[in-house]
Amino acid sequence: MIKWLALLLTLVSVSLGVEILSEKLFTDTEGNLIAEGSVEAEYREYTIKAERVKYNPKSKEVYAYGNVHIRRKDGTLEVLGKEAYIDLEKEVGYFLDAEGKFNKFYFNAKRVDKISEDMYEIHEGEVTTCPPDEKELKVCFWKAKVTNSYVFSFSNSLKFFNLPILYSPVIVFPVGERRSGLLPPMLGSNTYNNFVYIQPFYWAISEDKDATLTLDYRDKQAKGLSLEYRQAFTVKDRLYFRLSYYKEPAPPAEWWEGRNLKTFRENRFRLEFDTGFRGWKFGLDIPSDPYFFEDVYFAHESRTLPYTLSYITYSRLEKDYLLSFNLRNYYDLTSDDNRATLNLLPEFGFYSRPKQFGPVFLSLTSTFTNFHREEGLRTKRLIFIPQAELPVKLFNLNNYMSVKFVNNFYFTEGSNEFSDERVSSFQFENRLPFFKSFSWKDMSLSNSIEFVYSLSPENFNNPQLDGFDQVTKENNLKLRYSSSLSYGGRTLSSLFLEGGYNFLRSYRFPTDSKLVEKSLLPFRLILSLYPTTWLTLSEDTTYDANLGIFASSVSSASIKVLNTSLSASYVMSQDSKAEKLTDQYTLKGEVNLGRFIFGGSITKDNITKQELFRNLYLGLKGACWVLKADYRRSFFGSEKGYLREVFLVFTLFNMKDIKLPLRRR
User: Which GO terms describe its cellular component (predicted)?
Assistant: First the structure.
């Protein structure tokens, strides 16, 4: 922990060919070289100051007295001490009453001894990230031995306002390069367990390999073990492996209430694997049951993952083409089974980059995909889409023309809804952009207008599985306008507008792709306003004037004034029958009042009339610490209902959150 204090002892090197500036420089009766009065020297990247320096050329001993000050020129190290000594021949020495700063750590020690080439002893020391005049939280120790690899610290206490709150007789932790050892544990309790103890152990196998073994003990729920292995092959290619195993008590207890008993597993596991090499990528993520994440993990983001993905992919990018292979299998964590989950088993792709033939650029996109699931629509699809692009000058303007020849072939099973097994058409597009900017004093307005004409002659009743399937009859003329207004270099607003007209009186509704036999295309507006530095407003809306329906709307506002921040967002979408698909709002806020902080968030779904998530927290912060009580309530479906949790969160030395689970129901 104080290994870097060894740098202080290098001050004696000033006697070895380094120029010393001082008020007095003389030799005493014993032959010692004495420098007195504002002694100052520079050695490599260090500036060294003292009131008095004595050097014995016979014994090769150096002493420095009075306000011994050492500072690294880049500012990462600064130390002030009372006295320093070193024996140049034996390479041993000491530093007395050292205090200072290393990076973001403040430290002090009664004495630092260099007892061998690579070992130091530190007596009566303390370390903190709090400023020197506000040492509200600090780690104190009686003695520590520091080597090039580890720190062995004895009689350690964590003090909060000088009140000991945690004690450990011995602590061993690595320094410098990564070292094997125990990582910080998680301790606590929750609704289902009186005692939770999660202890990871890190193993630094070699420079390119390491592993973590984690013991997970819960007195009532499943007890488990997790092994992670990581290895680097090249700068880009990595291997990651994790196997988690948990033994669930049988029969299942109260935490299984409301769940499908068919999903219960006494032996629960999660197998993860991820690697890549020379264009190949492999990923495997298999949980034993859909409730594994909810029961094992404490992080909200991990528990609420909707699915896992297992895959094998290959891509080869050459100068003229891209070759790809995909095999993707999804595990739906929101369902008791995966019979209706759509997977790509497999997909082959070939893309030829645009190649110039005279003024024309030719390219090709082709794929074969097997959309597979056990229940519901499934199909095999073959796509062959050549494309030609022609950039030309039109009235000194850059004009871009392109045409795609679409050929999609379907081999559909499991549904008679779709009749078209072949889609054969073309899609023509012409883009003509204009750019114009205006400036007046500190005001600046940038504008761009783009006319887009697109033509596709026919509609098809084919499966709609991804963007390649959306082949719609159109003879459209669209207008796109975007602008940005700024004042004094600060952006005040940005705007995007899009609208158009279909001469063939046909288009697909934006959300459900239903055919609408009208001419006026839906309008899109994206507006962001920044009227002040503390206020932001934004709106993203798509409106269908023919049906009088807002297809989608995403609205948000955020305010940050003094020590208060508030934000609100609203997300809504509707289908072509004006039936709500999404209707949710989220509110967030935080207030800082000196040492006190409190805030929270809430997300509500207006369709189900359910509050999906609520978070409330109250905390106290100091110079280098935060103590916070965090309450969360998450909705896990009508059968499971709400999961309520309380965490006690410590942020020690402004470095890392330590979360203690107190309640989970």
Answer: cell outer membrane; transporter complex
